[in-house]
Backbone:
């Protein structure tokens, strides 16, 4: 391997000077590499840390907030959910299958490292325009990679989202979320206290793959990125499956003092993190590390991101039992070093000391940059767009066009490739509800899970867009009857060194934080992915929210499909007309502009509480929130999923028909209910001080939306279902 | 009745089968680790779904060399009931307990869905709780479920009525359109000539409780229990 300069490793001149000051000498090649990966944005959060402080992270439901491998929330009965979302964007741009597969592998390790049994996977994906064959290849590869890895592990992939926009053409976003279930008294934290404890490495052998992956993730993609293919790791889900089972056995028998997965920056990062929490030191002998090939240097061994490896610090005296369990699962575990008391990270190759740096310098010592954001000129320009200048558009044609938009059309082509039923817990499967719902065996509880972000809204107005993402996630859970508990986020942005991009980050984070605080859904874990650019243009800012919620009684769950002829369709929330940032503007008019509708957080809270009460009292038969495509698409989807048409009398005035049909303004849900319950529902809704509009009735084989004087939409249900259902499969054929 | 669920490294539906037998069908059940070499004391064996040994070579191809397999084969040859689900079916084919082989799905992608299955015989130890030609809804989840056999084998399967489950539409018609993976003659599950070894790609354990959308799959396990009771009464 050709030697790199510190600049090629991603260090700035001033950072290199700082390292020299810390060490009191020039760092050698290995030490420079260790600093470079630990001080990368991916590991050190040097650009984002000051902003992340804005997030609320506490609440009575929070057992573990940010700072561990994943966040933990209480779901009662001594049980807890462990969850986190993480990006694997840059590897997927280069090698979509392995990039996505190892993204899943990494997030799953974060969860079982905490002692939790992984019970669900979700994802959030962004690609460019599907007309481009390269984009289709990326899309196909990423979906197959997620499926290939998750299916083999036997963890159901139960939810997610996929959007397409030209800004992601060369830089797709691939965020994977994992949720685990753990007994509260079995939560494992990576805390090592005992000096002299051995450090064991278990799982796959270490190879030359993924060296400097963390650095690669912290720079812009360029023409030469393909040359970085060796920075992409290769996944082995079978090995991971064995690791899960073996590590959970260790935890059940209480054999480990500390456990840490090897992710970005490999051994360097996991060892440093294990030792840093208690100010301890560590010594490691790279010659003990099982390797895939001859002649690997200490530098390569310490920086390799080979997958499916775990670091384990045994409880004293338990080494033999640990070895027995690993042997049962056919895994090799070797002692590669030990915990020391001197606060130093010493790397040996046999007897020879080849690197020595203070642990704290690698972790807490990572520099922090508080940058200055500048409002980009596009912000006011696009906000100022006057919706009244829009030409007319036939509403029926618009609805068909929206149903055929890959952003709105059924994602069955995607989720059909994921095993979403294994573990036999999935009570609301993908496509059936606004969120996925899983039962918790041996209880009557359920958990609801979702990922959400409308990045076009975030681009147009980062503050409001950030708020919208949190509100939509919470609303989606409530539509299924679940109380939102907490969230994890994956902040995907462009290059933070650019003031306009930094401004997007600042404001999106502020919006998310405000909403998370108001809705009592603290941020318990997360990940930041910056430098998502290609040809020097940033992707749409995409702060993805992954949220979990709880149903005390899973029999109260609610899906989105219409259920029975004659049921009444009701809009909960205001009739709204804002079209800014809508899919309608983009798809039918080719416009991405307008004022982003502002979510009223108090109103959102009321709506969530209302939905929970309606589900609890079993008064509604379906609930589907109004989001991409507006009211018309919401109703069409409930009809298609229920195989039942509807007749709706549109409120508002005639000249506002398009706005009312296609506005994506938040805090609104379309529900269906038995006619006999209408009066009860009305009185409950009024207690929450929310408006209610009776829209029409479920029934027939047509989607009919009109006003007393004028028919707007009269569409055959089968035609709508076919358009919505088959678009993605047709494009991907 | 005591069921054994064989656990290979990489099995991932073992816990699901265990759950249904123990908590839904309320029978005795134990895991059998693949390194064991006998199956004494079990009345029926389940080879569960998953990716045994990662399925890196060919589905089921390595699992059949597992230490437990000679005991499974002997158990089957003595007439003991063996059901292989998904990867378990693939292992039964590789082990020669059932004829034929698996190809990759026609779409070349993994498919997870709920499909209609026709019950072609209701007089076996696995299907006595159904009526003939009943249409079931059972989930599938596989990348290699495209069952293949040569013409001669197919004719024998048909002549001996060994094709137990076929992919069909809601009316029970076996059309090419509803065949999810391209399998020969819409085959979803077959039985051996003696009638005690069933291999099927769909997952009955995923459709054994109302909360998961229905209980169509449970009757396979209840059939086995019913059959066993009949045997012990004789």
Residues:
């Amino acid at each position: 391997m050709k030697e790199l300069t510190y600049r090629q490793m991603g260090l700035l001149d001033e950072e290199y000077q700082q390292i020299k000051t810390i060490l009191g000498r020039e760092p050698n090649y290995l030490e420079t590499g260790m600093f470079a990966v630990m001080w990368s944005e991916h590991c050190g959060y040097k650009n984002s840390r000051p902003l992340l402080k804005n997030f609320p992270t506490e609440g009575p439901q929070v057992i573990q907030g940010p700072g561990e491998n994943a966040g933990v929330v209480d779901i009662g009965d001594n049980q807890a959910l462990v969850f986190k979302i993480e990006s694997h964007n840059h590897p997927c741009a280069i090698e979509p299958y392995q990039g996505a597969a190892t993204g899943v592998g990494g997030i799953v390790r974060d969860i079982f490292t905490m002692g939790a049994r992984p019970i669900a996977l979700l994802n959030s994906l962004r690609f460019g325009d599907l007309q481009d064959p390269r984009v289709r290849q990326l899309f196909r590869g990423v979906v197959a990679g997620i499926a290939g890895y998750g299916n083999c592990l036997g963890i159901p992939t139960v939810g997610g989202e996929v959007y397409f926009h030209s800004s992601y053409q060369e830089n797709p976003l691939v965020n994977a979320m994992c949720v685990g279930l753990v007994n509260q008294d079995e939560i494992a934290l990576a805390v090592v206290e005992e000096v002299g404890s051995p450090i064991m490495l278990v799982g796959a052998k270490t190879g030359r793959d993924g060296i400097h992956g963390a650095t690669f993730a912290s720079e812009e993609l360029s023409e030469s990125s393909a040359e970085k293919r060796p920075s992409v790791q290769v996944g082995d889900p079978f090995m991971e499956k064995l690791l899960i089972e073996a590590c959970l056995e260790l935890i059940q028998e209480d054999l480990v003092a500390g456990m840490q997965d090897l992710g970005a920056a490999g051994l360097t990062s996991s060892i440093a993190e294990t030792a840093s929490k208690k100010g301890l030191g560590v010594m490691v002998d790279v010659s003990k590390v099982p390797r895939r090939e001859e002649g690997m240097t200490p530098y390569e061994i310490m920086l390799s991101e080979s997958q499916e490896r775990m670091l384990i610090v045994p409880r004293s005296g338990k080494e033999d039992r640990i070895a027995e369990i690993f042997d049962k699962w056919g895994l090799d575990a070797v002692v590669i070093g030990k915990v020391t008391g001197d606060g130093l990270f010493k790397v040996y190759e046999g007897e020879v000391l080849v690197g020595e740096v203070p642990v704290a310098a690698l972790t807490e010592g990572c520099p922090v940059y508080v940058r200055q954001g500048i409002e980009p000129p596009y912000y006011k320009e696009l906000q100022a767009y006057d919706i009244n200048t829009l030409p007319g558009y036939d509403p029926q044609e618009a609805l068909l066009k929206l149903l055929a938009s890959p952003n709105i059309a059924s994602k069955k082509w995607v989720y059909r490739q994921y095993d979403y039923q294994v573990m036999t817990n999935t009570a609301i499967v993908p496509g059936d509800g606004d969120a996925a719902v899983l039962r918790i065996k041996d209880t009557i509880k359920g958990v609801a899970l979702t990922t959400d972000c409308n990045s076009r809204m975030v681009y147009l107005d980062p503050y409001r867009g950030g708020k919208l993402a949190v509100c939509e996630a919470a609303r989606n859970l409530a539509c299924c009857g679940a109380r939102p508990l907490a969230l994890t986020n994956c902040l995907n942005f462009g290059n933070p060194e650019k003031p306009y991009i930094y401004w997007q980050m600042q404001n999106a984070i502020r919006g998310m934080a405000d909403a998370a605080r108001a809705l009592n859904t603290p941020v318990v874990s997360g990940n930041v992915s910056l430098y998502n650019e290609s040809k020097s243009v940033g992707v749409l800012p995409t702060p993805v929210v992954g949220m979990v919620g709880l149903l005390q009684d899973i029999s109260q769950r609610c899906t989105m499909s219409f259920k029975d002829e004659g049921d009444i369709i009701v809009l909960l929330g205001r009739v709204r007309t804002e079209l800014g940032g809508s899919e309608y503007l983009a798809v039918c008019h080719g416009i991405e502009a307008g004022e982003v509708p502002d979510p009223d957080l108090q109103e959102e809270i009321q709506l969530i509480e209302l939905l929970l009460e309606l589900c609890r009292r079993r008064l509604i038969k379906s609930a589907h929130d109004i989001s991409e495509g507006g009211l018309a698409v919401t109703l069409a989807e409930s009809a298609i999923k229920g195989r039942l048409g509807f007749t709706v009398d549109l409120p508002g005035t005639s000249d506002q028909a398009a706005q009312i049909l296609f506005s994506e303004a938040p805090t609104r849900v379309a529900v269906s209910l038995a006619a006999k319950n209408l009066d009860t529902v009305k009185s409950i809704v009024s207690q929450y001080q929310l408006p209610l509009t009776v829209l029409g009735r479920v029934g027939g084989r047509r989607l009919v939306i009109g006003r007393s004087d004028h028919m707007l939409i009269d569409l055959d249900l089968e035609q709508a279902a076919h358009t919505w259902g088959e678009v993605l499969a047709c494009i991907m054929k | 009745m005591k069921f054994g669920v064989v656990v290979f490294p990489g099995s991932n539906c073992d816990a699901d089968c265990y759950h249904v037998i123990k908590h839904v069908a309320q029978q005795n059940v134990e895991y059998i680790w693949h390194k064991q070499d006998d199956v004494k004391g079990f009345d029926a064996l389940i080879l569960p779904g998953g990716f045994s040994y990662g399925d890196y070579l060919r589905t089921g191809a390595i699992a059949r060399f597992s230490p437990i397999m000679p005991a499974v084969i002997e158990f089957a040859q003595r007439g003991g009931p063996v059901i292989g689900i998904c990867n378990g079916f693939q292992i039964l084919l590789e082990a020669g307990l059932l004829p034929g082989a698996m190809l990759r799905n026609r779409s070349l992608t993994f498919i997870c869905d709920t499909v209609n299955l026709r019950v072609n015989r209701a007089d076996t130890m696995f299907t006595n709780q159904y009526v003939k030609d009943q249409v079931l809804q059972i989930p599938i989840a596989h990348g290699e479920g495209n069952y293949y056999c040569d013409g001669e084998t197919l004719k024998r399967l048909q002549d001996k009525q060994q094709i137990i489950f076929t992919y069909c539409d809601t009316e029970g018609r076996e059309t090419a359109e509803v065949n999810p993976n391209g399998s020969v003659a819409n085959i979803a599950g077959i039985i051996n000539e003696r009638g005690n070894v069933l291999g099927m790609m769909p997952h009955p354990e995923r459709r054994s409780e109302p909360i998961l959308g229905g209980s169509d799959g449970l009757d396979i396990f209840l059939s086995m229990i019913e059959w066993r009771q009949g045997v012990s009464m004789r």
